[in-house]
Amino acid sequence: MTRRAFTLAIAILCASIGWGCHKFVPVETDASIQRGTGVLVHLAQPTDIQLEAVTANRVVTIEGEMIGWRGETLGVSAFRLVSETGFENESWGRTVEIPRSNVAGLEREEIDTARSIGVAAGFIGAAAAVAIILGEGGGGGGDEPDGPGGPIQ
User: What pTM does this model have?
Assistant: First the structure.
């Protein structure tokens, strides 16, 4: 495996662990969650939410980043709104304000350690398999007479 391929594999591994290995953990609705933390908000009743020129209808779940509680209103920088029919609206970080009375549940995003270890082990195993298949450490090379790319006899 070339140094470039190895570097690419490591970059993909790190990105996969960072993006794909998270979970949401339920917390009390009045829990102190730091601003910018990933959250999943479950609404008590389907709600129409205005996103500039578009209205997301009958939203039941909002995924985004915590802005915080301002009195009796929860502010979330929303990325994804899911309706009761499963339709998803991307909102690209628009601020959504939800009355406390309409917050049925709140979940905080965390790294899933077990899944991260599993993904890392899978990538390391795949990289090792590729290295074995490509003959990492074997003889021959691009410019050597007995390696691939050498003179045709």
Answer: 0.65
